[in-house]
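// run 5 | inverse folding | seed 20
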């Protein structure tokens, strides 16, 4: 089983950091990154993969630039707008979906984020 300390060590090698928030979520960012580049998730493996991608993308962008987060999320194949991991499928409220996107994913109540359930 993956532990937070193991992920901290892994991400430190690529210039990313992780911490657990008071709400139980994981906050991932590049070292020295501002809130605009932070990524929040409740899944430790998701946090690790995103942090690794952020560390790689930080070489292309300033550590304080929000393009780091966007590029990292694209690298782990997750929609920046709604969190979808299914190609061209988005929630109805997704701001990043293109004009030909299929907006069939259920969102978390009160947000635009995908709830992880695939439509039947």
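// decoded
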């Amino acid at each position: 089983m993956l532990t937070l300390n193991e992920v901290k060590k892994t991400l430190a090698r690529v210039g990313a950091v992780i911490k657990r928030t008071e709400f139980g979520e994981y906050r991932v960012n590049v070292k020295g990154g501002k809130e605009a580049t932070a990524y929040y998730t409740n899944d430790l493996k998701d946090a690790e993969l995103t942090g690794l991608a952020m560390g790689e993308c930080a070489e292309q962008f300033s550590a304080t630039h929000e393009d780091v987060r966007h590029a990292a999320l694209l690298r782990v194949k997750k929609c920046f707008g709604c969190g979808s991991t299914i190609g061209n499928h988005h929630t109805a409220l997704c701001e990043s979906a293109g004009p030909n996107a299929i907006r069939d994913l259920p969102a978390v109540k009160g947000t635009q984020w995908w709830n992880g359930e695939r439509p039947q």
